[in-house]
From TrEMBL:
Source organism per UniProt: Niastella caeni
GO biological process assignments: sucrose catabolic process
InterPro entries noted in UniProt: ConA-like_dom_sf, Glyco_hydro_32, Glyco_hydro_32_C, Glyco_hydro_32_N, Glyco_hydro_beta-prop_sf
Family classification: Belongs to the glycosyl hydrolase 32 family.
Annotated Glycosyl hydrolase family 32 C-terminal domain residues: 354-463
Protein name: Glycoside hydrolase family 32 protein
């Protein structure tokens, strides 16, 4: 039965069956959150990409919809975005219907095989029934590769001050910005990043948006990177700065990571959500996504996270916290005390300490498998250790311990763990440090052990079982 299989996430979106990678086309429209996703409906490994589709009213419960975009003579349907074209700048609107427009990469596998350098081009599709059905534009592609092999993942938004669309595009080792009056004709504006940020791999899936910073506007540029992440393989870096409609100028040259764990990738934000910015990523890593031990489907998305600017001393960060909507599936929290107890997953653990000290939370089963999550005070690091988490031999680096820095140098600590049957997401210090990791125990984890140094006093320590979103 779908959604009841071993390791099937119970509070995360995953397709009913078959392969998924990146989230695509995330757009909020008429009370519905749309989530499209890289999808291969014929297999549980990556292949000719389609856009799968799911919808939600609350960012928690998802309904899978018919496939939105199929591959065609121009190629596979790679990652991209979707916008609400309120002013009908594209002219796709008919009879007063507002068009939703998807901007995606056409990846031509023939061109790639023949060794050409222009096999990734940007194309359009539109919907006049609020996202139910999609028609590809007959003038595709609208932005042709100038001879750059990695030329993909367009994220588009409306730039109100200059009344034009801005496309943020991943172009190999940098970001290229384009603008357009109508989504069909694109002009290059500028490039960013060749000499900045992490470059251990190719730049993919970017996003550019503004956030409020105490009444000021700051701009955030997300750049996904594969490989070269802080804990190996693929990961999401970001820059903070200013965007004037033509050019992105970073405030400084630091490399920042939105999630330090091994299993958040290709994350971007929903468009058309007003002042709120909601982020979601693919909950896997290209190092092993094709071989994780699930049978009928492969891979899931992270929970949606709300992004906010936070200052710590003179440093500035983008913090991520679980969206408040997730509280609706949380059952009554029970107080935990140090020691072991039986628990049921999925669930959420919340703790706070006035004087942070070493602690660990161990999830385990009676097969001796475990995942250990905690904080090391001396090193000022959070960690997730999945070395003995069950099935790990499908890839040599999967069994490992992953660490992330603490950014709040002193003072109280708060931490939440969103624990599903095969994943944990850690949010510390109001989302300043985030880590996501997946795991595959041979038997479900059903025990939780809380350990802390000395008599590290928890001001708060609770666990709440969560209802499955699939019932
Ligand atoms: C990122 C990515 C994108 C591409 C898509 C193909 O994970 O490689 O750059 O559009 O996946 O499925």
């Amino acid at each position: 039965q779908a959604y009841k299989e071993p390791h099937r996430p119970q509070i995360h979106f995953s397709p009913k069956e078959k392969w998924t990678n990146d989230p695509n086309g995330m757009v909020y429209h008429n009370g519905i959150y749309h989530l499209f996703f890289q999808y291969y409906p014929d297999s549980t490994v990556w292949g000719p990409m389609h856009w799968g589709h799911a919808t939600s009213k609350d960012l928690v419960h998802w309904q899978q919809q018919p496939i939105a975009l199929y591959p065609d003579s121009l190629g596979y349907i790679f990652s991209g975005s979707a916008v609400v074209d309120k002013n009908n700048t594209s002219g796709f609107g008919k009879n007063g219907k507002t068009p939703l427009v998807a901007i995606f990469t056409h990846h031509d596998p023939k061109g790639e095989k023949e060794g050409r350098n222009n096999f990734q081009n940007q194309s359009l599709a539109y919907s006049l029934d609020d996202g139910k059905s999609w028609t590809k534009y007959n003038g595709n592609p609208v932005l042709k590769s100038p001879g750059i092999t990695d030329f993909r993942d367009p994220k588009v938004f409306w730039h109100e001050p200059q009344k034009k669309w801005i496309m943020t595009l991943a172009t190999k080792d940098r970001i290229t910005f384009y603008s357009s009056p109508d989504l069909k004709n694109w002009t290059k504006e500028s490039e960013f990043g060749k000499e900045l940020g992490a470059h251990g791999g190719v730049w993919e899936c970017p996003d550019l948006f503004s956030l409020d910073d105490n009444g000021k506007k700051v701009w955030v540029l997300i750049v996904n990177l594969n490989p070269g992440g802080p804990n190996g393989g693929s990961a999401t870096q970001y820059f903070i700065g200013d965007f004037n409609g033509n050019k992105f100028t970073p405030m400084d040259s630091s490399t920042r990571w939105l999630d330090y764990g091994p299993d958040e990738y290709a994350g971007i934000t929903w468009c058309n959500t007003g002042a709120r910015k909601i982020f979601l990523g693919w909950m896997s890593n290209w190092s092993y996504a094709n071989v994780v031990p699930t049978a009928t489907w492969r891979n899931a998305m992270t929970i949606p996270r709300e992004l906010k600017i936070k200052h710590v001393g003179t440093a500035i960060h983008v913090a991520s916290e679980p969206v408040a909507e997730l509280n609706s599936i949380r059952l009554n929290p029970v107080a935990l005390s140090p020691g072991a107890r039986k628990i049921a997953l999925p669930g959420r653990l919340d703790l706070s300490m006035d004087k942070p000290d070493n602690f660990s939370v161990t999830l385990s089963n009676d097969a001796g498998e475990e995942v250990v999550i905690g904080y090391n005070k001396e090193q000022q690091q959070f960690f997730i250790d999945r070395s003995r988490s069950g099935i790990t031999d499908f890839q040599k680096d999967f069994a490992g311990k992953f660490v992330a820095p603490r950014f709040r140098p002193s003072g109280s600590m708060d931490l939440s763990l969103i624990i599903d049957v095969s994943s944990v997401e850690l949010f510390a210090d109001n989302g300043l440090t985030v880590m996501t990791a997946i795991f595959f125990p041979a038997k479900p984890f059903d025990r939780l052990r809380m350990q802390s140094a000395g008599n590290a006093p928890f001001k708060k320590l609770t666990y709440a079982n969560c209802k499955s979103i699939w019932k």
